[in-house]
Amino acid sequence: MQPQNGIPIDYYIWLAAALFTIGVLGVLYRRNAIIIFMCIELMLNAVNVLLVAFSTYLNDAAGQVFVFFIMAVAAAEVAVGLAILIMMYRNTKTTDINILNRLKW
Amino acid sequence: MNALFVICGLGIISLIAEIANFRKWLISIIVLGLLGAAALVVADWNTAVAYYHDMLVFDNFSLAFTGLIIGSSLLWFWTASDFFEALFHKTDKSALILFAIAGGVLMTSFNNMAMLFLGIEILSISLYVLAGSRKEDLGSNEAAFKYFLMGSFATGFLLFGITLVYGATGTFQINTIANYVLTHAGELPSFFYAGALLMLIGLAFKISAVPFHFWAPDVYEGSPTAVTGFMSTVVKIAAIASFFKIFATCFSTIAPVWYTILLVIMVLTLVIANITAVYQNSVKRMLAYSSVGHVGYILLAFLADHKESDGTIFFYLAAYAVSSLAAFGALILVGGKEENTLVERFNGLFKRNPIVAVGLTIALLSLAGIPPLPGFFGKYLVFAMAINNGMIPYVIVAIVTSLIGVYYYFRVIIAMYFKDAVAEPLKVSTSKEVLIVVLILITLALGIFPDFLIQLL
Amino acid sequence: MITFLTFKIILVALVFVITLLVAAYSTYAERKVAAFLQDRIGPNRAGPFGILQPLADGLKFIMKEEIIPVVSNKFLFILGPCIAMMTALMAGVLIPWGGTLTIGGETYALQIAELDNGILYVFAVVSIGVYGIMIGGWASNNKFSLLGAIRASAQMISYEIAMGLSIIALVAITGTLSLSEISAQQAGGTGGDWNFWNVVYHPLGCLIFIICAFAECNRTPFDLPECETELVGGYHTEYSSMKLGFYLFAEYINMFISSAVISTLYFGGYNFPFMNDLGLDQNMITIIGTVVMFAKVAFFIFFFMWIRWTIPRFRYDQLMNLGWKILIPLAVANVFITVASYLIFK
Amino acid sequence: MLTVFLIFFPLLISVLLLVLKPAHAKVWALAASIIELAASLFVAYSFDKNGGLQYFVNVPWIDSLGLSFYVAIDGISLLLVLLTTVLVPFIILSSFGHQYEKPSTFYGLILMMQMALVGVFTARDGLLFYLFWEAALIPIYFICLIWGGAERGRITLKFFIYTLAGSLFMLVALVYLYFLTPGEHTFNIYALYDAGAALGPYPQALIFWAMFVAFAIKMPVFPFHTWQPDTYTNAPTQGTMLLSGIMLKMGIYGVIRWLLPLVPLGVKEWGLTAVIISVIGIIYASCIAIVQKDLKRLIAYSSIAHVGLISAGIFTLSETGIQGAMIQMISHGILVVALFFIVDIIQRRTQTSELIKLGGIRNAAPIFTTVFIIVMLGSVALPSTSGFVGEFLLINSLVQYKFALGIVAGLTIILGAVYMLRSFQQSMSGEANAITATFTDLTGHEKLVLYPIVLMIIVIGVYPAPLLDISESAVKNIVEIYSNYSASVK
Amino acid sequence: MQLTNRSKLVVKKEMNFWERMYLPAILGGVMITIRHLFRRKSTVKYPEKTREISSIWRGQHVLKRDDKGAERCTACGLCAVACPAEAITMTAAERKKGEENLYREEKYASTYEINMLRCIFCGLCEEACPKEAIFLTDRIVTTDYSRTGFVYGKDKLVEKVDDRIDVTKRQTLAVQEFKQQKQLSHNK
Amino acid sequence: MTLNLFYFLSFLAVLSALMVVFSKNPVYSVLYLIITFFTIAGHYILLDAQFLAVVHVIVYAGAIMVLFLYVIMLLNLNRESEPHKSNILKFAAVICAGLLLVVLVGSLKGTEAIVQQSGKAGIGYVKTLGEVMFKEFLLPFEITSILLLAAMVGAVMLGKSEKTNDTI
């Protein structure tokens, strides 16, 4: 299959899978809450890339519109997540972030 | 649809209440509004209408679950009225709750992956915040953060799944997807199945099925009790409704792909959740595990016959919601300001406050599935369905786990009736007493005349 | 194609040089304006009227000793000013500096690149600019720098929202995100067909945009990130020599670009009144237009300085109040009012 | 309609007691139970011995579950309903010597229990039967939990889970059968009979065991009995009476009504096993009873032995056996209530029920001792007491079934005599000690309980025919159904 | 205690809508500044142009010689005593034979230093001097790179024989008269 | 040319994504993530979705990552504050992720079923997107406002200090 920009869709799927997996890896690998958080953003972006790729290949704008929703949600999540972080920080009154490490799994 | 608008409008009204200074009447307005929404749901009954380019479809399934969500929310507002008595953020909290309810309604009525996704996110984001609404309490903070991280993580999986499904079928409309799958059976790309499974994982996080449940106990324990009550009723209803909708419509034809996986998840959920619940010292945490366990029963019904199980699941959830609300209502009263819900706290509750004790007892009995309470009929329907579909070994597993369930529920009952009271009598406001009586009556009524709800779907 | 490329390359070089030149002379102008507004005469030693002062300053920056704090993060410490400079320069790509020139039968637009969502591109670049300040401030490992960096980021994010909202009304009415089209739509009146500058239609939006532009450029009265009375020098406390020069340069380039964007969006860009009624050659109009454009830009740069020496600095909470509680609601209201009145009076 | 009255009248009173908490709850409860007794006597009076099912009510309840409120009375049901309605007033009366906390709750729960028991004995719908079966569990659980002895928390939970576990398996079996009923599925007992009989031997065996376990736990039969002694000891006396006097009969009734005709092949295949288990249980329980130091525990074990005999008799599947079981159920119910009341009296006066600490009561309380002797003799099945009729019929049927088993089971009379007489000897005769010296004789309400019971023991022992008549046709009917099915399959 | 009428009482009254908009006020401020843009600049381009100075402007000191070219200073130390900034130090020495043309009297200052960094140019030294040896001139103390460079010794203070500094403007008639009245002098 | 660009961008994306995970210093993680985002924006442009690319840069690089950096700076996170995670767990995480990758790649093969739809080019233009968004996806678009409102209310509620007006 040869789409207009000459790159097979498989490549994008693999790229997205790789990025997604790296995101998952980060979530599992790291203990630092904020990095886990960033890795989740990475996962969402992997999804976005794939959506845009599919959208281009299927010639259907809905995929790209969906990306906007994901972006909106990501922004909302970041706002809330960081607010939670700040709240925790204020409670402990310390710059030591170890408090987050009660999160064990 | 109109109910959805009403709920969103109520959320905005409660934000306006902060500015326009009518906080006092806010709860009354919300209750009236929700009643109105319920009436709208009833009025829409038997009219399967698709709205806005098929974004939402309010058929009887959606309406029933929407009604259930609204009903539970109404009761929840009553049980959790103390939650809104706090000095700060009264209106914010109620607005968030209402938005969460709106999200839940979307999750029951979506017909497009975008609506599912947004519904889940509206619900989740509101709850992340509500989970942390005891701001000075580190446990609550931790709950919020953990819920947040795991919720977002699950969202990632869900989205990846949606994307792959979209890539394979070229649409986000679930009925179109279902048709596509039906007409293109055998020629679907393999990543369609991967997408379905990733969505399964994502939704399993949301309904907190083992092994994707590990966030649930911590979050349930850390959150304010009222919010936990909300999570374990309204949220659970919405999550399961969306799970059902996706897998019974979209992926119904590829059932062999997910059947075995879901079967394993179901058994694990039943066994692990119920066994772990036994070891909990906090009643809240125990209820958290039990709520995970209940998902197992629902999954059992779903697996037995995923197309026809909606009525069973609906009744199970209704029964579970009522009992759960009663339990959490009692928990809020017993836990007091410091939200201490250790089992010891319940010692001698029968002597300290018989009404609360009896209410909690009936709730727990119903959760344990003792006839003639609704919880029994829920379980009965599930078992009957499973037996009818030849899943007797799994029914045996479910029976054993529900016996384990009896064990841990009865620990609380024993504490209430058998142990000596450690504290002075528990004073409870009249409205709360009335509430408990009402909840008891609803529970009993559901138990004695369950037919209406069972036949609803 | 070749000529097109050549033209573009020349244009890029030209814009680059002009940008640097304008930025350089802005430093001079800043001192001059400050002096004049305070009844002084400002630098006047280097060259006639001190016209070579920027060169002298530049020379001084280069000759100064490089100081990199031992405890700082060296890589990021150097990266900071580079990012600041780079993003500042990048924003000029989309500004239409003039109309079209016809040389040898070929028509060239006096714009380096044309995107159908040019405004957004400018926004994107501007929003990245904050990294320079944040990274530099953090890498300095100095409390004042860090405070400056934090202030800068919070301030820029806050004001970006109002800024973005303020132009939504404009975009809604003009129906395009392309800067060149917006410019073209404000072309001077032709035979009874009156096209006013956008500022006539969007006075409130323009005001908000200008205020936000001040904040985005960290200019007084919003220069909290570097206010020397509180934070010594803010994010560039630890910087010296050319790295400091980069930061200062970046600030002036930003000012230049902001002025250009303001004039393009709201004040007609390269258009001037009655330009189509004069019966001039197209190339002539373009050249005059470019001059006009630069005149407008110059005015806004002057305006930036003028305001700087008029209004005292905000307190930080006042800054945030202004951004969140006043500008954003105003911007939203502006959208509603503008769109509603457009629908009514259309 | 009378059946409905019999079921719901106690419930109504119970709810009234629980909600209104009147001052003299015990009087209310007693009055209610007497009205109930009168109603049941009226039923017995107007009962047509050869009329099959009578007083039946069949209204659909939960359509979607195939559940209908189908209750009816036949001979077997009537006997057990009578047992219930007769014993409950005595049980309530026997509690007059106690000052229970929250009396209205206590009596409310007893009446609720009565409701469930009557329901169990009259239900003709599988699910309804199950519902009543479980409903009986809740009040007794709370009675034991709230007013029981020191160890009650753990022990009652064990009891609860045991019985619930058994009943859940029964539920699975019922549901399984439910889905085999033709057309619109139904839980109607006769439809279930048909569905069960139509199955092959293997599923029938599975169903047999699923249901047998439920009933065996309730009775309790030997390997499933471990909850029983502890629970009996720890429960308040009235609870023990309810458990042993009536509730235990639920299991036996279940076997007769819900097991034998339901899965004839299963019964046929595994009946012998059940008999053997039961007989082992008899011997085992009797032997343990002999070495018991505590009077209450001793009676508990004796109860296991008796029930074992009944169960063994039923599984002989002969009319004699089942009739014997019927009469023995009545007799055992009366006797065990009397025995536990006697223990209760001893315990209340001496604060102990350990045999070693007792002795010499007969000097202090001659009337009491006399009553005890009569009850005890009834329990060891002395001819002309009620116990004799039942045991005779049961052993008779066992001998006919398998001679050796009959002989072994017959040992129960001897062993029973051993432990009963030993207990009597240790508690009543001998020298009075500090505790028993001040033993007062029977008081008013105690006499009111014990005299009628003694009378009944003797009357039934001498003239059991009316009772046997009542149940005869129903028993015949069941045996017939069973033999028809098993013959037809053959 | 109210000394002047210039102080203004600050009132924190609620601002009305227009005031809260700030824009009119900002506009006012902007107008003020723009007006200054066109004002005449008050800067004097110094080296090329200097500002006029007053006739009694007090600049760098000078140690005068008499008409014959001998130093007038006798190292009496009155100037150092009078100096409020303690900027003046000196050491006295006796005149040798053959130095009569150098020093007017038998005693003279072998060193005389004024620390220009300390000096406040108050002119008290001039007033205190009984020999009319030290005067403040209209010369400017020049800049220097080192601290020590500002400690002016006799090399910088004493006027050159061939380059006499005219202080007559400072020695007005009134001053001379004042100095002749012995009873008014400081060191009576 | 395009393919090479794709390779380059993908390589950079994956590399910097890995660096996000393995950088010791959170600030470096943020910076690497920003690089990843830029490469993703590059991919968008390759896919002819310029509008999305610009919005992506504005939202992710311009707002979200600034917030991350802001919080990291505010909380003074540095490499010492990262708690030790046992090597076994890390190993398990790597194995899990590796398995996921293998499963994904394995299951994502075989894309023949996607038929390239012929149609007008330039679906990435604002106009096309606007048409779809405001016609077909109008309801989700409106519902997003509820989402953002909830997030806003929530963030303010959590972030606001209740006791006094001391700012952090």
From TrEMBL, chain A:
It catalyses: a quinone + NADH + 5 H(+)(in) = a quinol + NAD(+) + 4 H(+)(out). GO terms for biological process: ATP synthesis coupled electron transport. GO terms for cellular component: NADH dehydrogenase complex; plasma membrane. GO terms for molecular function: NADH dehydrogenase (quinone) (non-electrogenic) activity; quinone binding. Its main location: membrane. Its EC number is 7.1.1.-. The chain crosses the membrane at residues 12-29, 34-54, 66-89. Pfam families: Oxidored_q2. It is found in: Cell membrane; Membrane. InterPro entries: NADH_UbQ_OxRdtase_chain4L/K, NUOK/Mnh_C1-like. It is a multi-pass membrane protein. Keywords: Cell membrane, Membrane, NAD, Oxidoreductase, Quinone, Translocase, Transmembrane, Transmembrane helix, Transport. NDH-1 is composed of 14 different subunits. Subunits NuoA, H, J, K, L, M, N constitute the membrane sector of the complex. Belongs to the complex I subunit 4L family. PANTHER family: NADH DEHYDROGENASE SUBUNIT 4L-RELATED, NADH-UBIQUINONE OXIDOREDUCTASE SUBUNIT ND4L. This is NADH-quinone oxidoreductase subunit K. It comes from Pseudochryseolinea flava. The lineage of its organism: Bacteria, Pseudomonadati, Bacteroidota, Cytophagia, Cytophagales.
UniProtKB/TrEMBL annotation, chain C:
Keywords: Cell membrane, Membrane, NAD, Oxidoreductase, Quinone, Translocase, Transmembrane, Transmembrane helix, Ubiquinone. GO terms for molecular function: NADH dehydrogenase activity; oxidoreductase activity, acting on NAD(P)H, quinone or similar compound as acceptor; quinone binding. It comes from the Bacteria. It is a multi-pass membrane protein. The lineage of its organism: Bacteria, Pseudomonadati, Bacteroidota, Cytophagia, Cytophagales. Pfam families: NADHdh. Its EC number is 7.1.1.-. InterPro entries: NADH_UbQ_OxRdtase_su1/FPO (IPR001694), NADH_UbQ_OxRdtase_su1_CS (IPR018086). One of its GO terms (biological process) is aerobic respiration. This is NADH-quinone oxidoreductase subunit H.
UniProtKB/TrEMBL annotation, chain D:
GO terms for molecular function: NADH dehydrogenase (ubiquinone) activity; NADH dehydrogenase activity; ubiquinone binding. The chain crosses the membrane at residues 67-93, 105-121, 127-147, 159-179, 206-227, 239-260, 272-291, 298-318, 324-343, 364-383, 403-421, 448-466. One of its GO terms (biological process) is ATP synthesis coupled electron transport. It is a multi-pass membrane protein. The keyword Ribosomal protein does not apply. It comes from the Bacteria. Residues 124-412 form the NADH:quinone oxidoreductase/Mrp antiporter transmembrane domain. It is found in: Endomembrane system; Membrane. GO terms for cellular component: endomembrane system; membrane. Keywords: Membrane, Transmembrane, Transmembrane helix. Its main location: membrane. Belongs to the complex I subunit 4 family. This is NADH-quinone oxidoreductase subunit M. It comes from Pseudochryseolinea flava.
Automatic annotation (TrEMBL), chain E:
NDH-1 shuttles electrons from NADH, via FMN and iron-sulfur (Fe-S) centers, to quinones in the respiratory chain. The immediate electron acceptor for the enzyme in this species is believed to be ubiquinone. Couples the redox reaction to proton translocation (for every two electrons transferred, four hydrogen ions are translocated across the cytoplasmic membrane), and thus conserves the redox energy in a proton gradient. The keyword Transit peptide does not apply. Residues 64-93, 110-139 form the 4Fe-4S ferredoxin-type domain. Binds 2 [4Fe-4S] clusters per subunit. Its EC number is 7.1.1.-. Belongs to the complex I 23 kDa subunit family. This is NADH-quinone oxidoreductase subunit I. Keywords: 4Fe-4S, Cell membrane, Iron, Iron-sulfur, Membrane, Metal-binding, NAD, Quinone, Repeat, Translocase, Transmembrane, Transmembrane helix, Ubiquinone. The gene is nuoI.
